[in-house]
Amino acid sequence: MSSSIGVGEADFALLGHQENWGQIAAIVRALRPSDAEPMSLDEIRSIVPWIPPRTVSRIRVRGFPEPADAQGVYIDTFITPDELRSAAVHPLLGKVRAAAQVAEREGARIASLGGFTSILLEGSLDGMGDRVVFTTGNSLTAALIVKGIEAGALRLNLALSDATCLVIGGTGDVGSACARWLGPRVGRLILAARHPGRLAAAARAFRRQGIDAVEVTALEAALPAADVIISAASIAAPMIDLGTTRPHALICDAGYPKNLQANSGLPRHIFWGGIGLALGTFWSEDGMLERFYRFPVPSLGHGCMLEGLLLAVARRYEPFSIGRGNITPDRIEEIWRLAELHGFVLAPFFNHEGLWPGPHIPAANDVRPSAGAPR
């Protein structure tokens, strides 16, 4: 591989946005000349909405144990948390489409849609160009969530077959995929979402399969009843209070931005889900990704982004995940087999306080190559 990834040489592109102003400020400050006058956060907040989508980092990924390599770019849409809360769909959609044009100019064969970029598109790729294949990354995200729940239940001696599982955001693409995988494996399934009609239809579909499923639009009664909670709601800021959950509950915050309020006195067993570890590692040429994604161990990434890396390393330039509700349990298992083949595994359990104490699950997380990424 060449010493630097040039324009037009990318195998993949990752399209995303930051979940808080601190991360956005880190990018802006890194992009400015080193001798430029420092900018305050207020100044950054005033200019960022006017920054067009652009490539902010060039990335390399290495498969493991197969030494397959791929190179690509991270393109930030510069969609801000304030814009997400405003729900101004058309301007945000314009930013996603502009980011797709950047991916085309970079020569990417596949682009993964991170965070709200896939939600904004809702599977509609009209006007996105015809030289780049798009994937939402939601299949690998869902796989990392449910495999994390399976591993977490094993660690806590929690029998999933007897457990009540609450899926918040249960009619969204990721939430519904998790519910379909877990439904036959848990004792009872509770689906929570904002749209009553869609929610009722989803619960009826489960009941027709003989799965004990109920639907709720309010969480007050559901949270205290659940042994397992997955929160994969499309909300712009942490809004869900876990104060009434069971002390032993296994809780996965799979939102981006995060769904759960990080209040004191939270239950112990919370982990950030949908995040994986690349055993073969990936890194940005300029260290940019490492500046604003501050995870507790190296080579962690969100599933929506890792799916793009994985498909590029596997040379599968295809829309593996696209359109709401198309992720079946079989597709979850297929992407999981592909991930294991190329060294993408579960992240260690961690949350806003850091790594969980004790041994990490799975053991594969400790089997990493001794040679790190070149710097």
Give structural notes.
- This protein folds into two domains: 12-139 and 276-345, no CATH class; 157-268, NAD(P)-binding Rossmann-like Domain (Rossmann fold, 3-Layer(aba) Sandwich).
- Helices cover 31% and strands 19% of the residues.
- The chain has helices at 21-31, 41-47, 81-86, 89-105, 116-121, 138-155, 173-182, 196-208, 288-292, 303-313, 329-341, and strands at 12-16, 54-62, 69-76, 110-113, 133-135, 164-168, 188-192, 213-216, 228-231, 250-253, 270-272, 275-278, 282-284, 300-302, 344-346, 350-351, 354-355.
- It has a six-stranded mixed beta sheet, sandwiched between helices.
List the helices and strands and how they pair.
Layout (H helix, E strand, L loop, with lengths): L11 E5 L4 H11 L9 H7 L6 E9 L6 E8 L4 H6 L2 H17 L4 E4 L2 H6 L11 E3 L2 H18 L8 E5 L4 H10 L5 E5 L3 H13 L4 E4 L11 E4 L18 E4 L16 E3 L2 E4 L3 E3 L3 H5 L7 E3 H11 L15 H13 L2 E3 L3 E2 L2 E2 L20
Helix pairs in contact: 6-7, 6-10, 6-11
